[in-house]
Amino acid sequence: MSPRIRLHVAMTLLVLGALATHLAAPARAAAIDVYLTVAPPREKPVEVEPPARPGYLWEADRWQEQNGRYRFIPGHWIR
Length: 79
Fold this sequence. Notes:
By secondary structure, the protein is of the alpha+beta class. Helices cover 28% and strands 20% of the residues.
């Protein structure tokens, strides 16, 4: 085989290998992250904390975010 044909075969194999590698690579998905910051609603009227109970702690009322919306959680006793 002449050097010119060897070069042509080598270049063809190189191009085909590069093309196969490119086609075998997984497609990259475009990702976009969007963050919206929304403050919770205004405070509800202040709740008077009930007297202490033995073995319990009072957890004050608060706003809790669920599924993009705020839900009011009233104060309650926890163990």
